[in-house]
Design brief:
Number of helices: 16
Shape: globular
Largest sheet: 7 strands, mixed
Strand content: 5-15%
Helix content: 25-40%
Length: 429
């Protein structure tokens, strides 16, 4: 072979025995397989998207109510999906009269409300920028911020810089925030550990339980809101996508609406197993508070067809609720004797701490039993996101979200959408 190399002549061919060739081939295949395993990124297993027979597509794309308490899919317009419009009826438009410094402005006694910590300033500023850009720069309703600790100078400076409207910074009274004396600390900690073991989000955080209780039964009693009737709840790190060109508080007042929502979900039944049984105890003792089922959303609360497992684990409650990180509401409802008595009953039962009763199901159950369903409004034209869910209208006024999108997360999240039940039992008003 040395002679061949230096003489420029072609070397002779070496032939390997068959066993060696087999070993070499196997080694090569193994090497290719290992490289494939390293470079190949496995795709997560996804549950198939659930498509329900009573809601073929997101109603922000097509569909309209036919009849006061039913939902039927209407054919799309000939030139494409149906456009999402503003509510019908008289609407108050932005004029110079709504200037922030006009003491005689047509603004009514309403505020934008946020429970927020100093550490959440970046997320709060982002939420403010979105809502100011899409709505409040035209109407200049005041912002009211609540915290269980004093707001910092930085928080005040940065939030005031985002709006021309007045900003108010309020401290929550200790008696409204503290764990009530009838809650057993050992039992709470044991219950919190059980919630954590069931993967119930925030179940082991005492501050989360305090927040849910405050949002359920105390915020509307704060002295700063004594003369305020309506509020729009806004949390840090949410997004608003659509220009809203009418006064939403005036809409609520003029059209006799009690509550407005954008997103309607199922709750984790493990977090609220005794909420509905305690509710039944209350309404059995106070039947005078419960409205005729023909005009309420009670069937929405008790539906067991779409998610029977939730209904069973929650002991008769569908777990459907309005996602209350967005809510536009009339505080006179929370201040009513029916709701106050209901909240006090729940508060004494201890479920805000021994379970994870949230303000969303508490508000929703009360509305579903004690209020006429026609006074609850789906703001389909307000584009909104709180991770991981959206309300995305089909409108040229919207930028930044895909029309009809419910979530940009995994497909199995689509089964958390309870709007089909709302449209089935109540409608889309």
């Amino acid at each position: 072979m040395v002679d061949d190399i230096y003489s420029g002549t072609r070397p002779s061919t070496m032939v390997f025995p068959k066993p060696m060739r087999a070993v070499a081939l196997a080694s090569l295949l193994l090497f290719i397989f290992l490289i494939f395993q390293v470079l190949h990124k496995p795709q997560p297993i996804k549950e198939p998207r659930v498509v329900y027979p009573d809601m073929k597509t997101d109603p922000n794309l097509e569909g309209k109510p036919r009849g006061p308490r039913s939902f039927q899919v209407a054919p799309a317009a000939a030139d494409g999906p149906r456009e999402t419009h503003e509510p019908t009826g008289n609407l108050w438009r932005a004029t110079d009269d709504y200037a922030a410094d006009n003491s005689n402005a047509p603004r009514i006694n309403a505020t934008i409300l946020s429970l927020v910590r100093n550490s959440e300033i970046d997320g709060m500023v982002q939420s403010m920028r979105d809502l100011e850009r899409t709505w409040n720069r035209k109407f200049n309703y005041p912002w009211t911020f609540f915290n269980d600790e004093p707001f910092t100078a930085e928080f005040k400076e940065r939030t005031r810089a985002e709006t021309n409207a007045a900003c108010h910074y309020e401290l929550i009274p200790k008696e409204h925030w503290a764990v009530p004396p009838w809650i057993n600390d050992d039992l709470f900690r044991e219950s919190a550990q059980m919630l954590a073991e069931q993967d119930i989000q925030y179940g082991d955080m005492v501050s989360y339980h305090q927040m849910c209780r405050w949002n359920s039964g105390f915020f509307y009693h704060h002295p700063a809101l004594e003369h305020t009737r309506y509020y729009w709840r806004v949390e840090p790190n949410v997004h608003f996508f659509c220009d809203v060109d009418y006064d939403v508080f005036r809409y609520m007042h003029d059209h006799n609406k009690t509550y407005g929502f954008t997103i309607n979900l199922y709750d984790a039944p493990q977090s609220i197993p005794t909420l509905w049984p305690e509710t039944l105890k209350f309404i059995e003792a106070h039947p005078e508070y419960v409205r005729d089922e023909a005009v309420t959303a009670r069937p929405w609360l008790e539906d067991k067809e779409r998610r029977p497992g939730h209904h069973e684990k929650a002991n008769g409650y569908s777990t459907c609720h309005f996602w209350s990180n967005f809510e536009i509401a009339d505080m006179d409802f929370w201040r009513s004797k029916a709701y106050e008595d209901y909240f006090n009953h729940l508060d004494r039962a201890g479920g805000f701490f021994y379970e994870r009763w949230g303000d969303a199901p508490v508000h929703s159950i009360a509305l579903g039993l004690f209020e006429d369903a026609s006074r609850i409004h789906w703001f389909r034209d307000i584009g909104y996101q709180h991770i991981p869910y959206f309300n995305c209208p089909n409108s040229p006024k919207c930028q930044g979200c895909t029309k009809g999108m419910f979530t940009d997360g995994e497909d199995f999240l689509y089964k958390e959408d309870c709007r089909p039940n709302w449209f089935k039992y109540v409608g889309m008003g």
